[in-house]
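User: Please predict the structure of the protein below. I'd like the answer in structure-token form so I can feed it into my own downstream comparison script.

Assistant: Understood. Taking the following sequence of 166 residues as input:
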Amino acid sequence: IIGASALAMFSCDTKNYTEEDRVEVTTNLENYVDSVETAIQMIPVHNWSVIDERYDSLDSRAEKVYNDLKVEDDNLDMIEERYETAVENGKAEAENFERTANMHMENVETWWDKTAADIEKGTKSTAEDIETATQESMDWLEKNYDKLSDDSKKKYEEITIRLNKD
């Protein structure tokens, strides 16, 4: 009976996770934050709620392991700080990109609206007639096409098709 109670007490005190689990969850969380940082540099527009959900899931799992092992979570705090900084920078970068894209699109649309009136009067307008500032906007939009919102892509395509057609 004494042996059975000692075994019962010992089995209740055992941990669900191992040091290997702690290393794994920490690595998974660090790798995810690395991938978020990399993605932000490559593409300025992201679905932040999906990114946050995945981070929260990995972080929650890591916290369970750390708590179970009764280990300090300074590592998790540093990773969380990196993540929050990356998201903050990413959102600022996305806002800046959208502002720049809108500025270039408005420049092109203004030029197009002004030129389209001439086309109706019979004056031909071609890609060679584009003003320097408008050409810079067209070049920027073309260079960043894959990063543009769907609406901006559609507007850009419509103008370039009509411009090359005329």
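That's the full token string. The chain has a mean pLDDT of 82.
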